[in-house]
Amino acid sequence: MALSQRQLLLQQQKLSPQQIQMIKLLELPAALLEQRIKQEIEQNIVLEEDHSEQEGEEPKEISMDEYLKEDDTPSYKFRLNHYSKDERPRNFQISGGRSLQESLVEQLGFKNLSEREMKLSVFIVGSIDTDGYLRRDLQSVSDDIAFTLGIETEVEELERLLHIIQHLEPIGVGARDLRESLLLQMGSQNLDTQAKQLAYRILNNHFEEFVKKHYERMIARLGVTEEQFRSAVQEIQRLSPKPGNLFSEDVDAAPYIIPDFILDYRDGRFDLSLNSYNIPDLKINRHYLDVIRELKGKSDERMSEQDKEAVQFVKSKIDAAKWFMSAIKQRHDTLMRTMQTILDYQQEYFKDGDRSRLRPMILKDIADRTGLDVSTISRVANSKYVQTSFGIIQLKSIFSEAMQTATGEEVSSYEIKNLLEKCIENEDKRHPLTDEQLMNILNDKGYCIARRTVAKYREMLSIPVARLRKEI
Known about the structure:
Layout: H1 17-27, H2 30-43, E1 47-49, H3 64-69, H4 100-108, H5 115-126, H6 138-148, H7 155-166, H8 178-187, H9 194-205, H10 207-211, H11 215-222, H12 226-237, E2 261-266, E3 269-274, E4 282-284, H13 286-296, H14 305-345, H15 347-352, H16 363-370, H17 374-381, E5 385-388, E6 391-394, E7 402-404, E8 410-412, H18 413-425, H19 435-444, H20 451-460
Helix pairs in contact: 1-14, 4-5, 5-7, 8-9, 9-12, 13-14, 14-16, 16-17, 19-20
């Protein structure tokens, strides 16, 4: 086959590296943005934090000649200076206690164990999850011990040591499943009442039926009255399904939310701002501008190859810094523009946080009003939080689909969810409402909704089916 050349006219859409960088920055919440800026400062030698309090002009694209004419590096600000840095709120570190594993190892030190048994017990403790469960079979643990510690052991020996661990504080830790954990906790008590004895029998012999809440069948099999059965269930409910959570873990490990927006409502007026007190301002180090001026002042004959490479290197770093600073500024503008549009759309809700006042709102509604793409609105709404007078709200949680009533009026799906919650909250727990009964109630109130939609909303609210909501 002969080689040939021809011209083709094609239209392609490609994202520039700067556009990709902007998209990635837009997705970051406030906590991760601070880390990303610090990472950029470490990677780019010409970029540094701006500790001055003066407002500067926005960064812009400039040439090499303009670098030499600059008296100072242009800076930017994207937060209001209502107060000095000394007055800004700071996150205080709270010292935490020991971990669950450290506590168990310390308690093992008070047991009369040999050196071999201590090593094996510590290894078992290291396999226990933070909620207190051992979710690995002992044969796998035995294989890991042989590979890691070089100690040959049998499952029977590990079972004996695990039995010792299971009776450490908190009781029930090291259990393989929920039934074993509850039995350990109940067995550690003095079964001196009829209710506790019955509770132990239920856990030991009728656990599957108890989990599925087949209460009538269990009452008949156990030959007890309804009142006696209710007392036994109350004893079981006092036990902890996750014994490891009862232990005080390190407070620093607990996750917390840093809001991206701060919204105040006073005297009938909204005050919206971007929460950026922990995000440093950026500027370009003047030292590198001076380096360029000094090298550029030399003639081409006097400038060595190394000097030319230095000029090119510094210029590329300055260009990268300018692009990064511009992307941060553009992120700020996009976030504020989107949040202001959401605020204008949902003003009634943001006054007091009443979800029944939420208007139906999808991403396209905000995209049409801001002139931005739907994907951009999605990136802004995802993983962003707004601090209000009624709490910290996840931004994407206020987006909802529109549902039509029998009169043709559009209402938010949150309104239907709130009504669904109230129906379930006020139901007779001895005879909980099924999804079909809930559907009929909503239809009678004028909400045209199918049974599968009721089931979907119920699952979104983390509400179990009627059988599992049944109480004695």
